[in-house]
Design a protein that fits this description.
Order of helices and strands: EEEHHEEHHHHHE
Distance between the termini: 59 Å
Oligomer: single chain
Largest sheet: 6 strands, mixed
Structural class: alpha+beta
Strand content: 15-25%
Shape: globular
Strand order of the largest sheet: 1-2-6-3-5-4
Low-confidence stretches: none
Radius of gyration: 22 Å
Mean pLDDT: 92
Helix content: 25-40%
Number of strands: 6
Length: 209
């Protein structure tokens, strides 16, 4: 039997694609809301961006922005972390809270039919964080353990050395995004609350839906 030569398939005709239109609004309280309709699936993705990244850390308290963002999912005033996670899981979703150099971020994806209760929970996370001492202590310990692991990773050590070489000691970029053992150890609950009050105002919040 004669073997057919390999023939590369030809590409088909490109299908047209139109990016969804974005609509920008600002609520009476100052929150910017950006919405885009993509109705292929009955899902809603929500991203809350707060202008509260690591660049806003006070000197000597490097890591405060990252710690504050992580604490958002450790519980609200009325719910501890376990109860909060369970409440989101009952809606079929999970929530991630992180902070980068420029912003803090809380994001989730939920069925459209569960949007209203999910938004109520998200609002509670952003407006009424618990900031419990035990959660602060645990997350600080986790950061300390993470830094110990970095000491055994040549690539991480090289990255840190390069940052110290590239930036002036006074630059925030010369210090790790999540802070050092010394700076994180010095962070108190009062520091977290003060940072939250200063940086998590409505006028600094953008909600993308």
């Amino acid at each position: 039997m004669k073997e057919e030569p390999n023939v590369r398939p030809t590409p088909g005709t490109p299908r047209p694609y139109h990016f969804p239109r974005f609509k920008r609004e600002r609520t009476n309280s100052g929150v910017e809301v950006i919405t885009a309709l993509a109705p292929k699936l009955p899902l809603v993705s929500i991203v809350a961006l707060i202008d509260a990244g690591a660049l806003r850390d006070p000197a000597g308290r490097e890591g405060l922005a990252v710690l504050t963002a992580k604490l958002l999912m450790e519980g609200t005033v009325e719910r501890d972390g376990a109860a909060l996670v369970e409440a989101f899981e009952q809606l079929g979703t999970s929530v991630e809270a992180t902070a980068t150099w420029d912003s803090a971020m809380v994001r989730l994806t939920v069925l459209a039919s569960h949007l209203e209760p999910a938004m109520v929970l998200l609002s509670d996370v952003l407006r009424h964080p618990g900031f419990r001492e035990r959660d602060i202590a645990r997350l600080k310990s986790e950061r300390s353990a993470e830094l110990l692991q970095i000491q055994a990773d040549p690539r991480e050590l090289a990255d840190r050395s390069f940052e110290h070489f590239l930036y002036a000691p006074s630059s925030r970029y010369a210090h790790a995004e999540g802070g050092s053992r010394g700076s994180v150890a010095g962070i108190t609950r009062a520091d977290v609350e003060s940072f939250y009050r200063a940086e998590y105002g409505h006028e600094r919040l953008t909600v993308i839906i």
